[in-house]
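My main concern about presentation is that the manuscript never shows what a single data entry looks like. In essence, backbone conformation is discretised, so a fold becomes a row of integers matching the chain in length. An entry of this sort, consisting of the sequence and the corresponding backbone structure tokens, reads as follows:
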Amino acid sequence: MITGSLVALATPMHEDGSIDWEALDRLLDFHIENGTHGIVAVGTSGESATLDFEEHEAVLKHVVKYVAKRIPVIAGTGANSTQEALHLTEQAKAAGADACLLVTPYYNKPTQEGLYRHFKLLAESVDIPQILYNVPGRTACDMLNSTVCRLSEIPNIVGIKDATGDVPRGQALIESVGSDFAVYSGDDGTAVDLILAGGKGNISVTANVAPKLMSELCELALNGEYDAALALQAKLMPLHNALFLESNPIPVKWALAEMGLIQKGIRLPLTELDAQYHETVRAALKVLNAAV
């Protein structure tokens, strides 16, 4: 089971929007050197919505090859079309990813039965560990705990990224599924509480800029060190908040550029962080000594 701090990796781009491969290697080194427990590539933070199939596959192959099994690589392969998600998941398996992360189909609002059949088909079609991803605030689609429990019975559906931020709901899910099914937080602000309640880790935006601290935070929580985990979480809260002043990954890509790790490239319809938020993000970075 993959546990700990799993970074929802930003995809670095040149200012013309093309992928910056050298910066991608730099980010991967940054995470491996600072104790990140796993890489989640080409997900929401990786701007998967604006990458075409060829770019999606190229980024994933590059990450898998460069990481070279030093830590697990999880591929974002979800889509609102079942056939598109199937294609991306097949690509991830062929590339050598350790697992896939599959967001609920967005915009078209499937029923709970539709969600069940969608994920069941993907799991039965591609022999790779698959992690569900529920983020209703972005998708307008909420997968209920009852549906997750049904899906957890399928052998290669191994976990869920719960980005609802609803800790009691997450705890109820943890208590309803088997011990071999991992519930991960997808909400940095409440991740510690969910891990302390039995979650297995955090698929994190904040880990992009504070990998060492997020790794330490998850380890403390996984070890049940409540006081130390909550104290570190309190220190990190300004950064968690700052990285969601505008839609993810706008603030985190600006922060990474401020740290000198990437250029300021981001693809429309996303835009560079509004100037009114620059000092707030800078201040949050300085508190953690994360700024270069």
